[in-house]
Amino acid sequence: MISTKTTLGAALASAMMLGACTDPAQLGMEDGNPNQNRNQGALIGAASGAVLGALVSDDGDRGDGALIGAVLGGAVGAGVGYSLDKQEAELRQQMGSNVVITNTGDRLIVTLPQDILFATDSTALQPALIGDLRALAQNVQIYANSTLQIVGHTDSDGDAAYNQQLSEDRARAVAGVLLQNGVPQGRIQTFGRGESQPVASNLTPQGKQQNRRVEIVILPNA
Fold first, then answer.
1. Are the beta carbons of 156 and 198 closer than 8 angstroms?
2. Helices in the chain by DSSP H: which ranges?
3. Measured distance CA(64)–CA(3) in Å, rounded
4. Is the whole model's pTM more than 0.70, yes or no?
5. Where's the OmpA-like domain (predicted)?
6. Nearest-angstrom CA–CA distance, 99 and 113
7. What is the pLDDT of residues 88-135, one digit of tens each?
8. Distance in angstroms (rounded) separating the CA atoms of residues 199 and 153
9. Alpha-carbon span 179 to 168, nearest angstrom
10. How far from the centroid of its chain's Cα atoms is residue 22's Cα?
């Protein structure tokens, strides 16, 4: 019988081997290791699978359950990571340079600056970004096994309650374009975070500009 300690040690060793496949000098999103996110997905899947396998196994079989869970989870995670890498590359070709795409290995985050999405205090989308949202809608219909979380954010100027409502309305406006272009409503969730989740300082104009954004989080379904 394989002990839990032995199993966890094996899982850790596997994680280290996968991590070693990524050169720290090649961590840029566009110029980095093409297998980076596949490997990261495998690591995430293996760790989750090991924990789940141990939890659902009988006391005497926890080591075996963790090992099996790690192997299966790693395989699934690697597949998710590979699919996200492919989807990311296609989105970069299809969408404009103003759009920022971040691949974390288990999800894609498409960030749209609100300054080019909306006029000040408006929830009406600017025509310049409609084409990008249409391209995104077409892409996520090809990669259909995912949920889209659309999250609006503002800077700290003005009343917090007003900013919260504005962020919710802007998230719904972006969702509306995706719905109009064929994305099923059941795949879309909208949220407003107001000024509560800044990514930069609200003490400078540049920071405020970064904080005014809509994020579309593409989450692969389990």
1. yes
2. 4-20, 36-56, 62-94, 114-117, 127-142, 160-180, 205-211
3. 8
4. no
5. 105-222
6. 7
7. 999 999 998 889 999 999 999 999 998 889 988 899 999 988 999 999
8. 10
9. 16
10. 20
